[in-house]
User: Fold this.
Amino acid sequence: MPAIVSAQQAARRPTLAITTGEPAGIGPEISIKAAWALRAEIRAVLIGDAAYLAMIADTLDPAISLVALSLRAVRSGGLPDFPPDRLVVIDCPLEAHVVPGHLDPKNGRSLLQTLDIAIEGAQSGWFDAIVTAPLQKSTINDAGIGDVKFTGHTEYLAQQTHTPQVVMMLVGGTAPHLRVALATTHLALKQVPAAITFDALSRTLEIIHADLHSKFGLAQPRILVTGLNPHAGESGYLGREEIDVIAPAILAAQAKGMHVSGPYPADTVFQPKYLQDADCVLAMYHDQGLPVLKFASFGQGVNITLGLPLIRTSVDHGTALDLAALGVGHADCGSMIAAIQAAAQMAAQMALGTDASST
Assistant:
């Protein structure tokens, strides 16, 4: 059920772009469900095939009201004002009929267009933030678009906004929320040590510190850093990355006034006695940090991209093609609701910072 808000709060509803993801997966369903549930708190603008979304909405609940707009209309006149009982869709037509659970590369170009529209809108001031439903990388890659392999939302957003480095952070669990950022993301394990350099790690810490301050309102973020090797290298007996790279980067961050400590053994740092004094844990690689977070909050977690010149959140799961194949009505939108709420909160925090800096 949507939260009850005052008229003053409703007037300040942030406008969020929600890309509806892989049409053969659960993205369209969870986008509509979550946006409708939170319609009193946000102004939701879905980006996807308007006719397909209308069909899903009608199957879910005939009371759900969608208003379709063409991209040309938005570009010429901006987004119209609309009340909480309407969801707006910027129409991004698909090229092929959708069979739930079955991918079709003919729709790859349309999927990429939804991201381009969201980025354009965030940069043009139409949207306060972007929330992305999951997509299937192979749909875009198999479509043969361009010369560069599509590796994911995070990398594409960085490329299109000309951001040299971004950081993936997942948030989940009960309050106080657990935040886990990653020094490296989708790399083969054998490639991880070479990717952890002093410069890259230093920049990662700067990005985490800056975004936790500006987008989360933390005056002095406290960051715990894991080691790479078991037992954080055990004084060099199990590897020297902690001595040669990680510890020097931590000391450099401390010299800049950042509240950073470590390196800690990854198998012991995720304990209450450490986490109670931390705002974020920086893990060295994907499967070092995320299993802990997903155990604590899978289906309710939020994926946040730090370092971008815009706010972007997403769900903590994939397209769930097998679930989509069962038909509309089976998907849990909990993670999408959490992602939308996180984006709204970050947008509000950014607005506070902008207001404060202008006074």
User: Anything to note?
Assistant: Residues 334-357 form the longest helix (24 residues).
